[in-house]
Write a structure and sequence with these properties.
With 157 residues, this protein is α+β, with helices and mostly antiparallel strands. It is built from three helices and ten strands. It has one domain: PCu(A)C copper chaperone (Immunoglobulin-like, Sandwich). 23% of the residues lie in helices and 45% in strands. The radius of gyration is 19 Å and the shape is globular. The structure holds copper (II) ion. It comes from Sphingobium chlorophenolicum L-1.
Length: 157
């Protein structure tokens, strides 16, 4: 009897999976821990746009005192940065927060998180989604994953 019922139960699940729009998601999150506890650490990640345009409105975490989104830019030959509060993530696009460009600033990263080597970040999207992503914490003096990714890019040329 059971053999008859299994396909009937599975069919609607498969249909709904096919019909779901692709969501925006975030990966490759990492935090470069500041060597000086009084200075903020920086965070990086890649946002992948889903089927619909959205925007990143902010980032929260229980494992730091404060998080801000920043953008670095060169102004009169000097690198400066300013806080940003809305980062568009167009459909099917890739938006990278990377060293030298957009980044997170994190003040007072929690010692427990540092000991664990990772911290959960909550990304707030304009469409109301909250994405929980684990960021790897990179201690000072260790090359971050972004460096490794750049080395890979060069080897392809
Ligand atoms: Cu900054």
């Amino acid at each position: 009897m059971r053999a008859y019922f299994i396909p009937i139960v599975l069919a609607p699940l498969m249909l709904s999976a096919c019909g779901d729009p692709a969501p925006t998601y975030i990966d490759q999150a990492w935090v470069r821990l500041s060597p000086n506890k009084d200075m903020p650490s920086s965070g990086y990640f890649v946002a992948h746009g889903g089927d619909a345009d959205t925007a990143l409105r902010g980032v929260l975490t229980d494992y730091a005192l404060k998080v801000e989104m920043h953008e670095s830019m060169s102004e009169g030959g000097k690198m400066t940065m300013k806080p940003i509060d809305n980062v568009p993530i167009p459909a099917r696009s890739k938006v990278a927060f990377a060293p030298g460009g957009k980044h997170l600033m994190l003040w007072g990263v929690n010692d427990t998180a540092i000991g664990r080597g990772k911290m959960t970040l909550t990304f707030l999207l304009a469409n109301g989604d909250r994405l929980l992503v684990d960021a790897v914490i990179q201690k000072p003096g260790v090359a971050g994953p972004a460096t490794a990714a750049m080395a890979e890019d060069h080897s392809e040329h």
